[in-house]
Amino acid sequence: MSRQDLNPCQQKTNDATRKHNYHLQTENKDDKPKYGRGVALGKYVITNNYKEALPGPNQDHMGILPRMWSDQHAENYMKFYGPLEFSLTSSNEELREAAQQVKQGLQNGEIGEEQYISFLRRFRDYLEVHPPTLWQNIQYMLSFQFGYMYWRYFMWNFVGKQDDMQGRYNGQGEWISGIGFIDQMRLGSQQNLPQDKLDNKGRNTYFFLRLLLSISGLVFQLSRNPKQFWVLFVFFMFTGIAIQFYTNPYIFQPRERDYSLVGSFYIFAIWIGLGVLALFEEFKKWITPRIWAPAITVICLLAVPVLMASQNWDDHDRSGRYTARAAAMAYLDSCQEDAGSMLFTIGDNDTFPLWYVQEIENYRTDIRIICTSLFATDWYVDQMKRKAYESDPIPSQLTHDLYRYGNRDVIYLQKITENRWDIQDFMNWIGSDRPETKLRYYLEKNGADLSEYPESTLDLVYYPTDKIRVQVNKENVLKSGLVKEKDSALIVDYIDIDLPGALAKNRIMMLDILANNDWERPIYFSGGSFDSAEYIWMKEYLQLDGMAYKLVPIRTKNRSPFEMGRIDTDLMYEVVMNWDWGNSGSPEIYHDPQTRSQGLSLRSNLARLMEALIAENKIEKAREVIDLAMTQLPVDRYGFYTFVEPFLDGYYKVGETTRARELFDTLTGVYKDRLDYYEGTSLDQQYEQIEEILADMEAYKRVIDIAIENDDRELAEKETLLFNEQLDRFGFYQDSFLNQLPEIPAEPSTPDTMRDSASDTDSVNP
Fold first, then answer.
1. Is 344 exposed, middle or buried (0-12, 13-18, 19+ CB in 10 A)?
2. Looking at the DSSP assignment, which residues form a beta bridge with residue 469?
3. Between these two residues, 69 and 359, which has the higher pLDDT value?
4. Which residue, 167, 520, 577, 529, is CA-closest to 351?
5. Exposed/middle/buried for 131, CB within 10 Å: 0-12, 13-18, 19+?
6. CA-angle at 559, arms to 556 and 562, nearest 5°
7. How far is residue 469's CA from residue 511's CA, in Å, rounded to a whole number?
8. Can you spell out the DSSP letters for 636-676?
9. Which of 586, 594, 632, 626 is nearest to 609 (CA)?
């Protein structure tokens, strides 16, 4: 958000004054030199232009205690610490009015934090974001970094943990003791909790026993041996609070970071042992040690280790759980076999399990896995250019000297033409070291003062157009099996791509593969992101083949951002019915949050396949897919009940009314259970949880609507009465639902009408 994030090459070359002011605020600094082997010279040489290569800090944003930072996570900061203040550096009246509207819109709740940040980023050249004050930084440090990101973790270990969900100030992942009135003061009513909350295996309560015993040991050591105490205390602080201060964690992290602080918890646990001695020393004054010593030992064993084992075993037992392995194999089995398939993955969760089954179990080593987050490093690109097991090197024209560290880490658009270039011509430009491809040439041609730019900036490659075209080799498409012969008429002649204003190295390399593959080898994407860049800006040219999305030259207009690509029902059905599910449906294993979240993708993809099969009147296959989903992804183990609704509708569509009603009862039972809990809470707590209440009401209504749409009148009428009773309990919310109450159609008057209605019910939009 600050000026330090700007790259001079992105600024208007004719705005010399503003550029000069920018350089007064920040000075570029040298990067670390990167050495590589100089073959011609026979010695190692510096391979990057490191002089003034890194943007220096903005002086306005430097302070005694800089804590709140990161443009990347600005939305999260705003949600909890208020809007980022800014002032305009331009006198443009239109921009001034727009800025005022944005500020007012955020204040009135008309726009959200994302839209606010989007405005700041769009006009970042014309405004200055104010740095947080010293007091704001201190508040952030104390409330989030020390409070939420340390104290909460500390209490998990010595008092108890609410559940296994990640906390984001959302009522999840809090500490809890098991002592009702204490927990109620912090978290609201703990009476009549929904069953799925009580059944969460991550819900562990220690009743403050561990903490009290530790404090006893701490006090005992301080009184008996202060020197030893202060050694342990310093160790405890430096492995806890000091780590939080030093690492300066931003809000929020991709996952809980309690593991980084485990050293301090180990130290505090030492005082538990000393606490046993402290109790013995205190009580031996009143009772003979011969009697009291074993009694103290037994009591402490029951209060801490036995209690810990009983509470923690179920959510720490990983025996027999193969869900990660099964998911990895599902991804690989979704890729075409022995065709040189390349699978783009994004991060840890969709990459590491795949590496495991390939490297350790030697499974589907014909597939080249390409992790896009690592694809921005030269060493990883080098790996991709070598054969691995049965997988051939990636098709690429860029050589090591063109993508090495410090070279083409990022390139920027300097639009010269509106013409759409062939991707091969585009990559030839990117891979060229001709003077006209460098920013120096562009700036000099436009009359810019080159002395205002560091040498590293002048050596950057730019691209003159953001419009490229990918030609489709139909012969290769059919020969490689990317598209079946029956769909050949759907193949387009070319695909047009519109690029953003900057390309990082990983995106350059993805385009490099695309340009040099010529549709000979299948390209797949693991999904899991809505960013178009992760799909090489071709989200409308995908085909869902199980868990992976295959790039195909057939355009499919997506119904929603959550549904990408077309489906070949025969192919996908064969894939999913042959998956090895491990023991994902077993009630004996712990379905951890990652397993449950993975179930979202599995359910969603199976639901899409089911709907496509019904649309093609392949009813028996659709029924098998529903049964598969309900067996391997049981409702009570995987949660996320919204993603079960398509299968409820599917059961009706395939004629399984009895099973539909059973699933109906399960889903409505969940929502009634939750609403019963909300009803028993205070009015203030209800207002705090209004979003959750409304969400459950809406979900409850959607389930009833599915029964209505499928002409299950008896069930719908009965449940609508119960729904209205639930609604009456939350009278002050009724306005939100008055226009949304389930409407049961009138009883059909003639047999013909009934047949028409049934026919409509059986239809499904493809």
1. buried
2. 422, 496
3. 359
4. 529
5. buried
6. 105
7. 11
8. HHH--GGGGHHHHHHHHHTT-HHHHHHHHHHHHHHHHHHHH
9. 626
Model pLDDT for residues 465-523, shown as the tens digit of each residue: 999 999 999 999 999 999 999 999 999 999 999 999 999 999 999 999 999 999 999 99
Q: Is the separation of the CB atoms in 482 and 552 below 8 Å?
A: yes
Rounded Cα distance, 704 and 34, in Å: 64
The tokens for 194 are 């929904």
Coil, strand or helix at 470: strand
Dihedral sign, Cα of residue 432, residue 434, residue 435, residue 441: negative
Look at the pTM and tell me if it is higher than 0.85: yes
521, containing H or E segment? none
pLDDT 10s digits, 541-550: 999 999 999 9
Residue 634, CA atoms < 13 Å, CB-side half-sphere: 12
Task: Say if strands 467-471 and 421-422 run parallel, antiparallel, or are unpaired.
Answer: parallel
Q: Find the helix or strand (DSSP H, E) in which 111 lies.
A: none
Q: Is 692 helix (H, G, I), strand (E, B) or coil?
A: helix
Q: What is the rounded distance in angstroms from the CA atom of residue 447 to the CA atom of residue 453?
A: 13
41, 365, 428, 700, 721 from 509: Cα distances, Å: 29, 22, 13, 47, 59
Question: Which tokens in the block code for residue 10?
Answer: 């992105």
Rounded Cα distance, 337 and 333, in Å:
8
> Which amino acid is present at 295?
A
Contacts of 392 (CB under 8 A, 6+ apart): 340, 368, 521
CB 505 within 8 A of CB 409: yes
Query: How many angstroms separate the CA atoms of 349 and 351, rounded?
Result: 6
**Would you mind telling me the total number of residues written for the chain in this entry?**
766
Structure tokens at 214: 């530790």
E strand or H helix at 86: strand 86-88
Say how far residue 590 (Cα) sits from the centre of its chain. 22
What count of other Cβ atoms lies within 10 Å of the Cβ of residue 654?
Answer: 24
Task: Quote the tokens at residue 469.
Answer: 């075209």
Q: Which residue matches tokens 């013995």?
A: 280
Residues 672, 677, 679: CA angle, nearest 5 degrees: 90
Name the 3-class secondary structure at 388: strand
